[in-house]
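This part of the workshop introduces the protein records we will be handling. The question running through the whole workshop is how a given chain folds. To make this concrete, we reproduce a full record directly below:
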Amino acid sequence: MVSKPFALLTALIFTLGSLSTSFAFPNLQAPNGNLLRRQEAEDSTASQAGGGRPIQAVDPPPPPGPLSFTGTKLVNDRDHPWRPLRSGDQRGPCPGLNTLASHGYLPRDGVATPTQLINAIQEGFNFDNAAAIGATYLGHILNGNLVTDLLSIGGKTPKTGPPPPAPAHAGGLNVHGTFEGDAGLTRADEFFGDNHSFNQTLFDKFVDFSNRFGGGFYNLTVAGELRYSRIQDSIATNPQFSFKNVRYLTAYGETVFPVNLFVDGRQTERKLSMDHAASFFRDMRFPPDFHRAAQPSSGAGVEQVIAAYPWLPGANADGKLNNYVVDPTSANFTDPCSLYRFVLGSVQELYPRPTGILRRNLIKNLHYWYTGAFGPAGCPEQFPYGQL
């Protein structure tokens, strides 16, 4: 059984869609103790950004609370018109975030603060506050610039400020192995060269399964069938396929988001039409007259998707196809705190000895993440960098 707090966690470890991830270390492998020595940023300004202008360090504020009004409402409105991409705008594996940026709920260049992200996904999709906090800060801690408090929803960009010393990277949500991952619904595996762009072939499969199992609509029955099929696809075609730890959990969460968040909130039946699916996944655009969910939502239905084809975390071993080996050490659904401990270890590999502003911001962001994702699950809070 998946606990409610953990369903919230899987819920926006987001992908409001990637619906497609091993970056500096594949699939966030556990730390091995070989920590790199390096000089951490300590100044209140972080050297120079792309155009040579100083980047001011930011003291990250606490995350915003729930919306004052949490019912359905028109979100494709006059104040948030869709606009096409401009040169340099960032978009990534998550159709939901892409849509919010294209409508101006997020900065249209795709670079935002955690506060902006949490407010936008609540306002645009009525996403549950705790799940929004948990997912946003996870992405920010692993892929954002903690000194400037900025995260790219797509690829690496100088707009987030100077990158931290390696192995940290501030590479944005396109980085493989955190939010983005293998066996995505509409994004290809990173092994094939593009892990973040809309993939028409995979969307055709999405439509085919919706026709075969959902009467032309995407619902939880379709989600269970398609999730299992995409796992089998990757086992058979991707010798580097990895399906464990963070990705194992997000892969199930992303399958239910279209049902919970992309269906007009005035509908009583939770099923997504193919024209609305194409609008989000392909066009990064709210359908005409779209109203957000009628109540705060996140990962409802994850249990049903898992039950359709129970699957254990693991990977193709030894770089061979059809050689899937279960990893009993991976984080999983039975122990919510296992993911917390795993990610903390991975963060310490990225930032082995932070000092000054960077250490302060790590402490604060880790606490914000804990309050949304793991406090509700009863996990003891840990302080790898001490307390302020």
